[in-house]
Design a protein that fits this description.
By secondary structure, this protein is α+β, with helices and mostly antiparallel strands. Helices cover 38% and strands 19% of the residues. α6 packs parallel to α13, α8 packs parallel to α9 and α13 packs across α15. The radius of gyration is 25 Å and the shape is globular. The N terminus is likely disordered.
């Protein structure tokens, strides 16, 4: 016989349960009970995030109906897009209740092997590749949209994923008779989905050079979304089209006089440079740089015409190569554009954190539906843990893993995850207090699960 669920599954603190119950309406009652176990176990489990490791850490190692927990991912009827909308609402209400909502978008490669993983392809590895060295990687390509927002207890900006889509390979689409979508097509769909979810908010999307495409920029700009990304130094820039004179025949003009390329502006002695200080330069401290900015129209034959503000950046000390940025909203301040763009580095940090601490690339689902659901759930778990960390006391949120030989100044995601785990275990009576009345006997199933986690941590 299976052990009683109430005696096995860890009890959540009430402030944590209030956050998690937001997602309960997406499931049937029985499916939600299983999903709640998977969610809690994914937070508590170290190492691999397989369904079996989650069942062990939650004290359900002897659950004979373990297949019901697998079905949450490969068969149960629930909508991941609706879950993303609820998660975004919680994140915006908690961390960005007013002002512009800044979003970061980027793709990552999940290295997976196996003949049954049909959507995998061979892509350029953005981590191991450089300008002069090209490295290929085989796996699944995911495109993730994240909220870039300051975290009060961390005193820095974090990238919180809320919407992730699988961008399958071209071969996968051809085998199934589907039209292959480029990465910019997927990005446009994700951004416009966020636009529909936040109709009354000012949206700013920060992206890398892969999204410096006129079709993408024009599509998001038409819906009131400002996009900030890199700009080629040899891009064709023009003055705006002059006013159309009365009685003029033919098609209206789309551009004016051709302007000098930014590579020429960079070497022109007449260019005006302004020195500014940008805080949090790529996750570090302040950086003094020089900028030059203006507005123009970016046009290419057969492509939409996009008005932009360009910002040319150079380092007076020569520590990095000059680069150019663009913003599709010409009214934004160039210093603010720079501050938003350097926050994009936190997207890469989040990808690293979910691999190190949340088990991305360790799950073992093989069905197409489970594959399409598991990785977005693990990325969303990063944001959910941050929301749960907000429910902790200020002292618990600021706790860091310091020692005599290592002094950590500010808490990181690993510290927040540890604090959330500690609070859940304290609810079970595992973390004892000085008051004997607060001590409770741990159920044997949970005790076995904790012993398994400690003995198999590697």
């Amino acid at each position: 016989m299976s052990p009683p669920r109430d005696a096995a599954m860890p009890r959540l603190p009430s402030r944590f349960a209030a956050v998690m119950l937001t997602f309960a309406p997406l499931f049937l009652q029985r499916s939600w009970r299983h999903a709640e176990v998977l969610l809690t176990g994914a937070i508590l489990a170290p190492g691999q995030r397989t369904v079996t490791s989650i069942l062990r850490i939650t004290g359900l190692a002897r659950e004979r109906r373990f297949v019901n927990y697998h079905r949450v991912l490969n068969r149960a009827a629930w909508c991941p897009r609706a879950a993303s909308r609820l998660l975004l609402g919680l994140l915006v209400a908690a961390f960005a209740p007013s002002g512009p909502v800044v979003l970061g978008i980027d793709d990552t490669i999940e290295r997976r092997r196996g003949k049954r993983i049909a959507a995998k392809g061979i892509y350029r590895d953005p981590v191991r590749s450089s300008h002069g060295h090209f490295v290929k990687a085989s796996g699944l390509r995911w495109l993730s949209l994240m909220l870039l927002t300051p975290i009060p207890w961390a005193h820095r900006v974090w990238a919180l994923p809320f919407l992730t889509a699988l961008a399958p390979s071209e071969r996968y689409c051809q085998q199934r008779g589907r039209r292959h979508k480029k990465l910019t097509d997927w990005g446009r769909q994700l951004v416009l989905q966020a636009r529909r979810w936040l109709p009354g908010r000012e949206l700013v999307v920060v992206a890398d050079s892969a999204f410096a495409a006129l079709e993408f920029l024009a599509a998001v700009s038409r819906h009131g979304v400002a996009c900030i990304t890199r700009l080629r130094l040899d891009a064709a820039l023009y003055d705006p089209a002059p006013p159309r004179l009365p009685g003029t025949n033919g098609r209206p003009r789309t551009k004016g006089k051709r302007l000098a390329t930014l590579s020429k502006v960079l070497t022109d002695p007449a260019t005006t440079w302004v020195r500014v200080t940008v805080p949090g330069w790529y996750g570090g401290g302040e950086r003094d740089i020089e900028i030059s900015t203006s507005t123009a129209v970016w046009r290419h034959g057969g492509m939409p015409v996009v008005p932009i503000r360009w910002v040319l950046v150079r380092d007076p000390l020569g520590r990095f190569e000059p680069q150019a940025l663009l913003c599709t909203d010409q009214t934004y301040d160039p210093v603010q554009i720079l501050r938003w763009f350097v926050q994009r580095w936190q997207v890469e940090v989040t990808f690293r954190e979910v691999r190190d601490h949340l088990g991305v690339e360790t799950q073992r689902q093989w069905s197409d539906k489970a594959i399409a659901r598991t990785t977005p759930c693990l990325l969303g778990l990063f944001s959910l843990v941050t929301l749960l960390g907000r429910q902790l006391t200020p002292c618990a949120r600021r706790a860091t893993a310091t020692s005599a030989w290592y002094r950590k100044q500010r808490p990181t995601f690993s510290d927040t995850l540890a604090a959330v785990r500690r609070e859940i275990w304290r609810e079970q009576g595992f973390v004892t207090s000085r008051c004997a009345a607060d001590m409770r006997k741990l159920p044997p199933a949970l005790r076995d699960g904790i012993a398994y986690a400690l003995c198999h941590a590697a």
